[in-house]
Amino acid sequence: MKTIAVLTSGGDAPGMNAAIRAVVRAGLDKGLKVMGIHRGYSGLINGEIFEMDRHSVSDIIHRGGTILKTARCPEFKKLEVRQKAAQILKVYGIDGLVVIGGDGSFTGAKLLSELGVKTIGIPGTIDNDLAYTEYTLGFDTALNTVLDAINKLRDTSTSHERISIVEVMGRNCGDIALFSGLAGGAESVIVPEKDYSLDEVCKTILDGKQKGKLHNLIIVAEGVGGANELALKIEDITGIETRATILGHIQRGGSPSAFDRILASRMGARAVELLMEEKTGRVIGIKGGDIIDLDTNEALAIPRKFDEKLYEIAKSLSY
User: What residues bind ADP, as annotated (predicted)?
Assistant: First the structure.
């Protein structure tokens, strides 16, 4: 192993830059040549490859987004496109590739490994939707971004004695909604993993009003969606002014939390170690505080389990 490369693919997430930094500096520390690839797989097939040094990753550990940029590349599903990518890596003398991204990015890396490219994946997605790892890079930061928004909305909701519905990201995974709802003291958390009753939600609101509650907070995961429509229905039933806020891509930005920076650093360093060990087709995660690695296919085949216990705790504390 003499030369490795790193790219970021799919949606951006806070902590990606910290992971890039770790890969570059850990690689250089082990005497490797490290290359950066702009714009994910799209940049790879277009040859957007350059050499990186320690200065290339100076002052980026605290920055959100990704200095390598990212892009979707649907054409990477084609065998001939992946063969071109493998050939380009060979031309540049790249022996191993670190891919920072989500499940789609990992699938691309696994397919590349079948063409002889040594690949290691680092989970970078705010959605926290990869079952093999307890946390993905960016989730903790996005969670705190949502919590900050909730705190601000609570102030104005209390002033106007209204209901606030907040729609958060996460695709079909309700973790951002569940964790932020619990941490933010929401009256209701609506996630795609659990059915919900509009009548039950409204009853909770009306019961709270009778007890003197001045405001209500409802968190809705984007996998459920329809925050604006839900607001209209709840206002019609309860007679209480209701406003919806869709946080959107603000959740992907911002300086990564200490947790995400440390996790990214540990994962980036481990990725380099695995490549030095000639490992390939593997992804890195965290379990019980330990950094782990699994075969990519095995990892992606693990069914995601919704945290029923945490959901019940959130419900029991909301009344």
Answer: 21-25, 154, 185-187, 211, 213-215
Q: Give the residue numbers of the binding site for substrate.
A: 125-127, 162, 169-171, 222, 243, 249-252
Q: Residue 106: which of 69, 132, 142 has the closest Cα?
A: 132
Between the alpha carbon of residue 186 and those of residues 91, 183, 213, 218, 256, the distances in Å are: 54, 8, 13, 6, 24
CA atoms within 13 A on the CB side of 11: 25
Confidence of residue 185 (pLDDT cuts 50, 70, 90): very high
Return d(Cα 29, Cα 119) in angstroms, integer: 20
pLDDT at 209: 86
Rg (CA), the chain: 22
Which of these is catalytic: 12, 53, 95, 127? 127
Which residues define the annotated binding site for ADP? 21-25, 154, 185-187, 211, 213-215
Report the binding-site residues for Mg(2+). Answer: 103
Question: How would residue 161 be classed by pLDDT, with cut points 50, 70 and 90?
Answer: confident
Strand 242-246 to 33-37 pairing: unpaired
| Collapsed DSSP state (helix, strand, coil) of residue 82 | helix
| 59 is annotated as an active-site residue | no
Judge whether 50 and 17 are in contact, CB under 8 Å.
no
CA distance 136 to 192: 19
Q: How far apart are CA 115 and CA 117, in angstroms?
A: 6
For the question of whether the overall pTM of this predicted structure is more than 0.70, the answer is yes
For the chain, list the domains and their CATH numbers: 3-138+256-301 (3.40.50.450), 140-252 (3.40.50.460)
